[in-house]
Amino acid sequence: MLAARLSDAALARDWIAAARAIVIFSGAGLSAESGIPTFREAQTGLWARFDPARLASPQGWHDDPALVWAWYTARMVRVRAALPNAGHCALAQSAHAGRTALITQNVDDLHERAGCSDVVHLHGELFAHRCSRCGEPHAKTALPSADAIAQRLEPPHCGRCGERIRPGVVWFGESLPEPAWERAVMHASNCDLMLVAGTSGVVQPAARLPLLAKRNGARIIEINPLASELSTLADLHFAATAAVQLPRLLLA
Ligand code: BV8
Ligand code: ZN
Q1: Minimum mean pLDDT among 44-48, 138-142, 171-175: which range?
Q2: How far apart are CA 91 and CA 113, in angstroms?
Q3: Does residue 169's CB lie within 6 angstroms of at least one atom of ligand 1?
Q4: Percentage of the chain with pLDDT > 90?
Q5: Is the Cβ atom of 226 under 6 angstroms away from ligand 1?
C-alpha cells in the first residue's frame, strides 16, 4: 500500500481518466460527514448499551421486535434529517459516471438523494420495509419526530397476513440479495479501477469485492482516514475523508 501524498491525487486522476470500467465500493464512512454515525462507532444515546450487530440480526428481532423497530425508526429519522455530503455529490456529478458502477454497503438513501441512480445496495435499504412473513412490501410509515422516539416501538403489521413489518435490510446471518450480489461480483470482476471509500472491510462477503477486483487486474484506490482490512490491497491510500478526497479525485 502506498500512503498517498497530495501529489498522488494527480496520479489517481490519471488512473480514473484512463480507466475503462470503474467501481465505487462505499461503506458507512461515506455518510459520516452527513452526520450518520458509522456502524462500528459506539452506539449513542438510547442505544449506547446495545450491540448493533445484535440489533441487526434475526435473533435480535425475534427477542424484541419493538426494540429493533425503534432502533431502525431512530436511524430512519436521522437519515431523513441528513443531507448528502460533498462525497456523495462528487460521485453523482463525476464526469466518469457513465463508466462507473456504484456498489454500497450502506442502507441509507444518501447516494440516491445526491443524484446517483442504479445503486447496488448489498445490505438492503432502510426505507424498503417488508412483511417478515410473506415479504409483501410495506409503504413507508410516517416517522415520529426525533424527540418522540421511545426505546420500544411496536412495528406496523402486514395488511395481507397480519404479521409484523420488518426493515428491508440484510441482517447479520442473512444472505445478501442474490441479484445485488451477482451484479456486484460482475462489476468487481470486470472493472480495471475500484475506489474503496469509507469502509473498514470487516463485513463479509461484501469485503471480498476489492480482492476480486485486484485478482482480475484492477487498481485499488482507498479513501479512509484510517487503515482498514482492505488497505493492504490498495495501490494508493488517501488518509482523508470521503467528502474532502472524492471531489479532489472526481471533480478537479
Ligand atoms: C452472510 C444492514 C451468508 C443492517 C449490515 C465470511 C463469509 C460470509 C459471512 C461471514 C464471514 N465471516 C463472518 C460472517 C458473518 C457476517 C459478518 O461479516 N460478520 C462480521 C461482523 C465479521 N456476515 C453476514 O452475516 C452477512 N451474511 O454472510 O450470509 C450466510 C447466510 C446464512 C447463513 C450463513 C451464511 C450479512 C452481512 C450484512 C450485515 N448488515 N447492514 C443495518 O445496517 O442495520 S452490515 C453493516 O456493516 C452496515 O451495512 C455497514 O455499512 C456495514 C459494513 O461496515 P462499514 O460500512 O465498513 O462501516 P464501519 O463502521 O465498519 O467502518 C466505517 C469506516 O469508515 C471505518 O474504516 C472508518 O475509518 C471510515 N470512515 C469514518 N469516517 C469517514 C470514513 N471514511 C471516509 N470518510 C469519512 N468521513
Ligand atoms: Zn404479510
Answers
A1: 44-48
A2: 12
A3: yes
A4: 83
A5: yes
Q: Is 145 exposed, middle or buried (0-12, 13-18, 19+ CB in 10 A)?
A: exposed
Rounded Cα distance between 86 and 252, Å, is 13
Q: Is the CB of residue 213 less than 8 Å from the CB of residue 188?
A: yes
CA separation for the pair 93, 11 (Å, rounded): 20
Q: What is the pLDDT of residues 90-106, one digit of tens each?
A: 999 998 888 999 999 99
List the residue whose alpha carbon is closest to atom 33 of ligand 1. Answer: 173
Question: Which residues contact residue 112 at a Cβ distance below 8 angstroms, ignoring those fewer than 6 apart?
Answer: 119
Q: Which of 71, 88, 203 to mutate to test the pocket of ligand 1 (most atoms within 8 A of CB)?
A: 203
Cell of 19: 480507466
Taking residue 6's Cβ as centre, other Cβ atoms within 10 Å add up to 9
What does the alpha-carbon distance between residue 112 and residue 98 come to, in Å, rounded to a whole number? 16
Q: Is the peptide bond before 179 cis (omega within 30 degrees of 0)?
A: no
> The C-alpha cell of 129 is what?
420495509
